[in-house]
Write a structure and sequence with these properties.
Elements lengths: L5 E6 L2 E6 L3 E2 L2 H16 L5 E5 L5 E2 L1 H16 L3 E5 L3 H9 L7 E3 L2 H12 L1
Parallel strand pairs: 2-4, 3-5, 4-6, 6-7
Antiparallel strand pairs: 1-2
Helix pairs in contact: 1-2
Length: about 120
């Protein structure tokens, strides 16, 4: 059994996911990460998910595809998805692929969580 590449914690109804790997280039790793992320929505029905990319330096296009699938799954159950701490060069990839409008981006985990305080207040 291979170990998880994600660190998942829940704070006040928000599921925060941090990535253990600094590079998401290996297709096996990306596939496993995808399965773990999908399980949050499919099995745990997480309604608010923050993906913390602070540790991630490189991202393969396959990883972006996983994020798009996750977004579709989240939308299907009325869940909200946010991305935080994405490096500027990775953010440009989202911009180039015209995906910026699909995701909400925040500078850090604190900012992403604060955005949801509006809903929980």
């Amino acid at each position: 059994m291979s170990h998880s590449h994600l660190m998942v914690q829940t704070m006040q109804g928000v599921t925060v996911v941090s990535f253990g790997a600094s590079t998401m280039l290996d297709s096996g790793v990306i596939e496993q990460v995808g399965q773990e992320l999908y399980a949050l929505v499919d099995q745990k029905a997480a309604k608010r998910i923050v993906l913390d990319f602070a540790n991630v330096r490189f991202l393969a296009s396959q990883a972006v595809s996983v994020l798009l699938t996750l977004k579709k799954k989240a939308d299907a159950i009325g869940a909200e998805l946010a991305i935080c701490a994405l490096r500027a060069e990775l953010r440009r990839v989202f911009k180039i692929m015209n995906l910026e409008r699909l995701f909400r981006f925040y500078d850090g985990e604190k900012e992403a969580l604060a955005a949801w305080d509006i809903y929980t207040a």
